Amino acid sequence: MNYSLSLECMPSLAELFRLFLSGKHLNRIAEPALWVELEQQEDAYRSLFAALGYELRLDRRGFGWFHTAEANSLIGKTSRQLALLFMVIFEAQANAGKPLLRFSDWLIDREWLMEVHEQQQEVLNAEGIAPDGLVELINRACTLGFALSEPSGWRLLPAVCRYLDHFEALAATEQAAQHDPDQLMDSAFATEEAKDEEDL
Questions:
Q1: Fewer C-beta within 10 Å: the chain N or C terminus?
Q2: What is d(CA 79, CA 94) in angstroms, rounded to the nearest whole number?
Q3: Sorted alphabetically, which InterPro entries does this protein's record hold (predicted)?
Q4: If you compute the radius of gyration of the chain from its CA atoms, what whole number of angstroms results?
């Protein structure tokens, strides 16, 4: 297959490149047509983006992104704040007995976010995040492909698994070191994961 024919097999190249270059994640749920094309032409897209200096990563749970080992300070701050947002959301849902692996089923509205801020105001205030700041953060998460805005609120998208994986790893490390696992994500996370696997 020659190079021009490869490009013909990638009709959404420009759209995907703009999406990934902006720092956004592509999600199978939010943009199924683009996801199908990317999966079907994965090798071609990987090769082309690599030639341009970008590393395309696809997670089989349904999301893809441009991976970079270096992040500027603004991206680093945004990532830390998003991690905190997702952490307090998952902790609140775990405390409510919600299955954590079914996070895409949750409808998150403004009123609930205000309740979460009240529950976690000490840690959120320490980061300088006011109640309205949680709304701003989840809208930022939408911009980056981690959440989807709906008329009645927001839903988390599969790309949130990137943060969820980190939470799992941190919780496991803390347990292994015999530290307090409640500091980030308690042992309920592993319990809920096992429960969800049984239900599938």
A1: C
A2: 22
A3: MksE
A4: 18
Residue 117: predicted pLDDT: 95
Percent of the chain whose pLDDT exceeds 90: 59
Q: Which residues of 32-51 are buried (b: 16+ CB within 10 A; e: fewer)?
A: eebbebbeebeebbbebbee
Question: Residue 104 is encoded by which pair of tokens?
Answer: 């895409």
pTM: 0.74
In this predicted structure, what is the pLDDT of residue 78? 84
Q: Which residues of the chain fall short of a pLDDT of 50?
A: 1-5, 73-74, 181, 184-185, 187-200
Query: What residue type is assigned to position 126 of the chain?
Result: A
DSSP 11: T
Count CA atoms closer than 13 A to 140's CA, side-chain side. Answer: 17
- What is the helix (H) or strand (E) element at residue 8, kind and residue range? helix 3-8
Tell me the sheet residues that pair with 57: 65
User: Residues 41, 47: contact at Cβ < 8 Å?
Assistant: no
| Amino acid identity for residue 175 in this structure | Q
Q: Which residue has the tokens 């990934």?
A: 20
Question: What does the alpha-carbon distance between residue 172 and residue 164 come to, in Å, rounded to a whole number?
Answer: 12
pLDDT at residue 76, as a whole number: 74
Q: How far apart are CA 90 and CA 189, in angstroms?
A: 9
